[in-house]
Amino acid sequence: MGCLGDLGMAEQPSGNSAKAISTKVRSGMRAVTVAQVSSQILTICALAILLRYISKEAFGIFGMALPLLTLPRMFATLGISVATVQKDSLDQSQLSALFWLTNVLSVIAAGVTVLLGWALTGVYGASQLLSVCGALAGTTILAGMSFTHQSVLERKLLLGRLAAIRIAGQLIGLVAAITTAVILEWGIWALVLQQYVEWAIVVLGCWFTAGWKPNRPERAKIGSLVKFGGYYSTSSIVFYAGQNADKVVLSVLLGATKQGRELIGMYCKLYEVMMKPVQLVTNPTTQVMLPGLSRLAATKDIKTLHEWAKSFYRFVGVLLIPAAVGLYAVAPDFVEVLGGEDWTEGASILLALAPVVAVHGLININGSLLAAIGRADQLMKAAIVIALLQVQGAVAGFYLGKQFLDPTTGTVEGVAVGYSMVLIMVVFAPYMIFSLSMCGMRLKPLLVDLMHPLAAAMLMGLNVLFLRGFLLGRGWSTPAVLLLSVLMGVVCYAALAWPKVKRDVIGLLKGTAAS
């Protein structure tokens, strides 16, 4: 089976120079971006089908169960996986020890999910929550079998192969969910099946592709890795808890009634819609950013590390600033086309969440920067502060929305406004300054770089709103208006911001940026 020198470096470009690593990063960025675009198109199409065959209440219960599944899983696996990628060198015994530790922790995390479902069923007032948590818990055990092998692929910077495996799992899982929801009318259990099918494909693909097998359990020196992983896991859990504080607040205060669960389901799915462009851009970025910057940090070439870090931030900003403006402009039409007339009342939720898209994306990639330079301890401190602010924003939004907004949907609208306001007005600037300063970078030059895309996006938004109003006023159908609005928005922004798009998006993907 060999040592990790064979595992980690055999398929990288010859040498560990910054130039060789940069070549691999460019290739990985292109492959992962293509995979993410395909992934998001798949999920949007699948969601448009599932929203019509699975009830809002079922989505609400699934949304209540998801944090109880994800939090224990993150604690058990995420930090160790990131430590495996970030560490400059590992031997076979260390990697094997991490594999077995991850699987033991995954079993424990599955048990914690069941216990949380049992404990919170009464608190939330949703009797089905326990059975859903029990069914989902097994996916954590299944997922744990793949994490070390995913890390091996990331260490080798074989990011295209890993992206292909993930999208294959997602596609087959979605097909399974749609089939059972439409034909067998499984409802919420179609969503559970999707999780099992997706992870089963990922496990098989990663084991086959990574070309690595663990030794039998044995002692190994992994204390520093576990410590780093502990910091990263804790920070990720706290971040996740903060980002899901809105759902927890809604679950506690609304989960006992059918109408409340429907509102939760509507909020959760529209939050997911808001996150689609964020995930489309930041998922490929972080998948390349963490291993790429980690390898560059090991070369001590700070100048190249800074150049690549700036390229990643500009890539995210140039793409997500117009996404935020565009989603706000077409939110009512998008909700109607995606979910049908039953979901139109949720347009106000998406309007409140849309402005946070760009901010969310830039905030999200800070974690990869801090982890790559070995500052997971500082990431954890920032996560605690941000989570506390997000909890306060969700609670305040709930009660203010209940008092001042629509009596039916005002609570969820208020939570959406609170969520956006906290991230945009309180968290963004301080956290960006803090994160960039950890590796000797400043926020001001980055913001100056993004002023042109912001101005272009605002002009694009005004044009889209004018076109939308013009077409609707003449009786055009909502799908046609949405399609033409999106096409016009893309063309308008590309024309107005072409120099930045060419340098920061096309240049990064083609390999002419950060070089």
User: What is the alpha-carbon Rg in Å?
Assistant: 22 Å
Low-pLDDT segments: 1-15
Helix content: over 70%
N-to-C SSE string, H for helix and E for strand: HHHHHHHHHHHHHHHHHH
Tell me the β content: under 5%
Mean pLDDT: 85
Broad shape: globular
The number of E-state strands comes to 0
SS-derived structural category: mainly alpha
Count of separate DSSP helical elements: 18
| Quaternary structure state of the chains depicted | single chain
Distance between the termini: 36 Å
**Main beta sheet strand tally, sense and closure:** none
Which tags fit this structure?
84% helix; disordered N terminus; mainly alpha; 18 helices
General description of the model:
There is one protein chain. With 515 residues, this protein is an all-alpha fold. Helix content is 84%, strand content 0%. The protein contains 18 helices and no strands. It has helices at residues 4-9, 18-53, 56-86, 92-124, 129-155, 159-182, 188-210, 223-243, 245-254, 258-299, 302-339, 347-353, 357-372, 376-404, 410-437, 443-473, 478-496, 498-510. The longest helix has 42 residues, at 258-299. Residues 1-15 have low confidence and may be disordered.
